[in-house]
Design goal:
alpha/beta; Rossmann fold; nine-stranded mixed beta sheet
Length: about 230
């Protein structure tokens, strides 16, 4: 059981990722988990160091934004001090070109070859027991496949594989991280590249692992004094 925690939802940017609809879909879950929720639709919220410092979970859902160097530094400092950070798809890995932000999240989107393509999300066998992926092995998808540049510090929980394709410049199958976590100072970060639009997030396994990722990343102590793995 968790003590009361606070969540800040930062949403906006490219409308094709439906930042309002997708984040709204997680509000009932977060409320059920005991979070108080604040919603910001202006990146100026990242200028508020005090707000970030007292927030237990920041959910960033903002594609193609321009975050100031100061805002990126404030978010980085807050996570290092214990604030959790989480998000999905372009809302977190195609959010801001600011390098300190990319260093924080551990990955950067480059492209999605083929647009909406049938493929499979595969949980790495050695991470099958992680609290985010427990009970999930594979998920069939028909959505964008994110070709990522990723940090080896990431704890990769699930991957996707690009097979050799006639119009692709790669000559062998390429496996990319699709879901990962990372510890950053005292904070925790959860990233999923799945979630182009609401139908992706409504797939039961994707909904489940994303919800778990949000609560995993959030700062907080359990009543027995423990912390999530």
């Amino acid at each position: 059981m968790w003590v009361m925690r606070s969540a800040l939802i930062v949403r906006g940017g490219a409308e094709f990722h439906d930042p309002v609809g997708t984040t709204d879909s997680f509000l009932p879950y977060l409320k059920d988990q005991g979070f108080s929720i604040e919603i910001a639709e202006d990146l100026a919220v990242y200028d508020d160091r005090e707000l970030l410092a007292r927030t237990d979970l920041v959910v960033n859902c903002w594609t193609r934004g321009q975050l100031s160097a100061e805002g990126a530094a404030n978010l980085d400092d807050a996570v290092r001090a214990g604030t959790g950070l989480a998000g999905w798809h372009g809302g977190i890995v195609a959010a801001f070109p600011e390098r300190r932000y990319q260093w924080l999240t551990g990955g950067w989107f480059t492209c999605h070859p083929g647009n909406l393509v049938p493929h499979t999300l595969t949980v790495r066998p050695e991470r099958a027991g992680h609290p985010i992926t427990a009970g999930i092995s594979t998920v069939d998808l028909c959505t964008e496949r994110y070709w990522m540049l990723a940090d080896p510090l990431n704890d990769v929980l699930a991957t996707i594989t690009f097979p050799v394709e006639a119009d692709g410049p790669w000559h062998e199958p390429v496996t990319h991280p699709a879901v990962w976590t990372r510890h950053w100072g005292a904070g925790r970060i959860f990233v999923s590249t799945v979630g182009h639009h609401l139908p992706d997030l409504d797939i039961p396994e994707i909904r489940r692992l994303t919800e778990r990722g949000l609560t995993w990343a959030a700062r907080g102590q359990m009543t027995n004094g423990g912390n999530p793995p």
